[in-house]
Amino acid sequence: MTTLTVLPSGHTHEVAAGTTLLQALMAAGEPVNHKCDGQAKCGSCHLFVQEGRKTLSKIQKLENDMLDTLVGIGSKSRLACQTVLGTEPVTVELLSFV
Ligand code: FES
Q1: Whole-model pTM?
Q2: Domain containing 76 — which CATH number?
Q3: Could you read off the pLDDT of 2-35 as tens digits, one per residue?
């Protein structure tokens, strides 16, 4: 287990390491978009990782290619559906809401 803090609400959840951010956010009842159901095809689950980037899975080509098509990405950008949680606490900022 690890800790996932969600901005802007500031809610903190105990979540399972080894699951994707999308799975963890949905299980926690957080309002995260996922229009392609986690296939890296829509970009709607784009969020910023504010803390804990090093504990997350590395960006793979599929995620990188989708991020390249989005407006407003930065060094903290990840796709929640492609990002697997590690064992350290993470803080994410949701950018769009369901
Ligand atoms: S849910 Fe579509 S890219 Fe993540």
Answers
A1: 0.95
A2: 3.10.20.30
A3: 999 999 999 999 999 999 999 999 999 999 999 9
How close is the Cα of 20 to the center of ligand 1, in Å?
11
Domain count of the fold of the chain? 1
Q: Find the domain containing 54 and state its range.
A: 2-94
User: Which residues' Cβ are closer than 6 Å to ligand 1?
Assistant: 34-36, 38, 40-45, 66, 79, 81
CB 78 within 8 A of CB 47: yes
Q: For residue 82, which atom of ligand 1 is closest to its CA?
A: 4
Count Cα neighbours of 97 within 13 Å in the Cβ-side half-sphere.
7
Phi, psi (rounded to 5 degrees) for 35: -65, -25
Rounded to the nearest angstrom, the distance between the alpha carbon of 37 and the centre of ligand 1 is 6
